[in-house]
Structures are given as C-alpha cells and as structure tokens.
Amino acid sequence: MEMAITFHNSSFKSPFINPSSNPKPKFLFPTQLSGLISSPLSSFNSKTCLKFGSRTFTKPVKCSVSQAAKPAIEKRSQLKRRSDIRNIAIVAHVDHGKTTLVDAMLKQSKVFRDNQFVQERVMDSNDLERERGITILSKNTSITYKDTKINIIDTPGHSDFGGEVERILNMVEGVLLVVDSVEGPMPQTRFVLKKALEFGHAVVVVVNKIDRPSARPDFVINSTFELFIELNASDEQCDFQAIYASGIKGKAGLSADNLAEDLGPLFESIIRRIPGPHIDKDGALQMLATNIEYDEHKGRIAIGRLHAGVLLKGMEVRVCTSEDSCRYARISELFVYEKFSKTPVERVEAGDICAVCGIEDIQIGETIADKAFGKPLPAIKVEEPTVKMAFSINTSPFVGREGKYVTSRNLRDRLYHELERNLAMRVEDGETADTFIVSGRGTLHITILIENMRREGYEFMVGPPKVINKKVADKLLEPYEVIF
C-alpha cells in the first residue's frame, strides 16, 4: 500500500520542492523516500528524526493513541482472542456506496439462492430509507468466508444519525472505512473515523467506485492518511490496508488498475487485518444491549455482543443499569445472525453477536450479566443533541381530519417510546401540558421522527428548529461543524 506523508510544521522546507515553480505541496510516497529517511514509516516514535541529505529535522512525524483509546486497549490486552469470528462495521460518508458494497458481499457469499430475487440495497429495509436513498438505522447480518464467520453491521452515513454509529462501535473490533474514489474523505468520514480510532479499532480503507472515469485513488489515499495523522491514530492504525473496489460490479483489488473478478481481496484483508474479538470465555456472563428491536410475538429483542461467558436458552440472568440498580430475568429465546436472518440457537459463546428475547423492559445500554457474579459494563455514551423543536397537539380548526392519535397523552407516549431505541434524542416537557421539547443531532434527525409519526397516524404541530446553546465557564457556546 502506498501512503502519502505531509508535514504541518511551517518551518519545514523540503529540498525537493521549489515553491516558485510548484506552489502546491508535492506528495512523496514512502517508496520515493527510500534511502533518504533514516527509519521506515512504521517505526516512527517520539525519538525518531528525519534526515534529508545533510539536513536533520528533530520534530518527529508521530501518530499517538488518543487518551480515550488507551484504557480500552490496555484492558483488551489481558483477554483471549477468538479466531473464527470477525465483527466489523461498515462506515462512510453518505452516498459513498457502503450499502451497495454490502449487497455485493452478501451475494458473493451465497447468502441468497442463485434463482432468488434480491432487490437493490437489501439492507435498507425501512420504507423511508428506500424513498430517500439513505441508511437511517444500523442493521446486522453475517457471512461465512473460509470457515470464518464475519458479522457485518451496516451503519448510517449522515451525521444526524451519528448516534447509531457510536453505539454499534461497542460491538466490533474493526471497521471498513468506505471512501469515494473522487470525493475522498468528507465530514462524516472524519466523524466516524474519529470514533473508531478512539475505540482502538483496526481500520481497512476501501476506495469505492474506482471504476468512475474521474477517479483519483492517489489523492484519496493521501487525504485519508493525512486524516489518520490529524486524528492522532496509533502507529498500527496508520499502517492501514487499502483496498480498491467497485461495489456495483462486485470487484476489488490491492491496486486501482488491477481488480480481481470478485471481492476476494476484500474478504482476505478483513480476515488478515481485522483481529478476532477479545473475550473472557471462562469469566462471568456479560453482554451489553446495544440495539433494541420489537416483534409482535416475541416482544422486545436485545441485540449486542457477548463480551464474556456463555449465554444459554432458558438461563436466569441479572439485568444491570449500574452496580446498585439490577433486576432478574430469564432468557426465553436466543438467536444469532446467520446469513440474512436470525437463527435460533441453544447456546452462544463469548465474541459472537446475538439477539436475546424474554427481558420485556430491557433498555439500550443495560448489561445482561451472570445471576450471581455478573457486573455491569460501561454505559454507552453518544454526542449531545444540537437542535431542538417544540411538539404540541393540533389546535387548528381542522384537528382530527388527518390522524387518529390527537391527544397530548398519545403524543407523550409516542415521543418517550422513541427514547427507548434512539439514544441521541432527548424529550422533555414544555411550558404547557400539551407541549414537548424534542432535541436531536440535527434537523434531519428530527424530520425522520416527524415523518414516521405521521405515517403511524399521529397528528400534531411542530415549531421552528432552534440551536441548543451551552454555558461553559460563563461563556455561551453553540455547536459548530468542522469543514475541511
């Protein structure tokens, strides 16, 4: 893989660049710098210097692990690794082709029959997702490649649904960062990559849509590598594997001009570069509920990765929010993800992603633990909301003509029910008994809630969106976006 090096030290002047003749910085690859750099890129540390000819630069090129990632990495080093499973999340900026890439991965893994009709973007099962052409909810599936089970989580690509991305990163050990071959890294690329690096996850960069005539793979790899350094990635994370792919054609390769006839190079990179889950197989049962689904027959279904121990059907467990807040329940049914559906099983071992039935009041962020010795895992934390809107009952003369749920009780129940699975949203009572303040990550985040409620038969009024300000050290601050 080729990676570019850039230097943000204003005092550095490369002897190979003439500013008068070339005003734009020239990217130099490690292969071009062989013999000039005293040590290879992978061995840079706090004591490494660069030598160019007779000049020596004491300021190092350093990728350091962020403070949030260190405790997680130190803790994982004490656990054992399971080699027959890979848990990955596919993250990208909106419309960079990750859901289409998942389609190709499913088809080539023989998840569907040869004569089975499969619609495009099969993971986007929600009506709103299909109408808008974007992913809104994160979803689980799995494939099998050379006796290795690969659990795949497709995630939203819009920053307003960043809460979906943040919580599922607790379930995986690595991510596929999909980047468009023309646009390169975009704002949401920066956001999801930052979160993945903070968790200490391994990253495989997929330069997608490489078959576009205007593709510029070298620029994309250079920009992505700069982003890794800017986000304080570790040395191992900076040494990422780059895969060039065309999701719509189902092809991938290690170079932009030499693609294989299938996605074999991508699967091989996942097995080789994404580590297996760190588990405590003989420890007390621990599973963090990361997602919640609802079934008319089975009730609430908790989805998460089993961190330690063994989970059995019919087992009595303890459900903990904190050390002092626990209750008891029994597992009625147990499922794992096999291909494109849930498969009932009697037993799940640590490291696998599973779905648990029987706990009617379980919430996202709670821990399913051993009845006698289990302890809660750290709660899921997501970014705070940035926009709020007022929801109130319809008081116009035409009330009751378009919906069947029109009272404040109906509105209250529906809004607070949304909080059970939407971690990034907040709801609080307004100034009157008929008004509620709904806060979200952005206007699109709240707009999707409004559209879903309208389709469910709720009739209500909404006010204009307002930015949420915060007071820090007697200063009034407002949220902002980083544009690069």
TrEMBL record:
GO terms for molecular function: GTP binding; GTPase activity. It holds the Pfam family GTP_EFTU_D2. Signal peptide: none annotated. One of its GO terms (cellular component) is ribonucleoprotein complex. InterPro entries: BipA_GTP-bd_dom, BipA_II, BipA_III, EFG_III/V, EFTu-like_2, G_TR_CS, P-loop_NTPase, Small_GTP-bd. This is Tr-type G domain-containing protein. PANTHER family: TR-TYPE G DOMAIN-CONTAINING PROTEIN (PTHR42908:SF8), TRANSLATION ELONGATION FACTOR-RELATED (PTHR42908). Residues 83-278 form the Tr-type G domain.
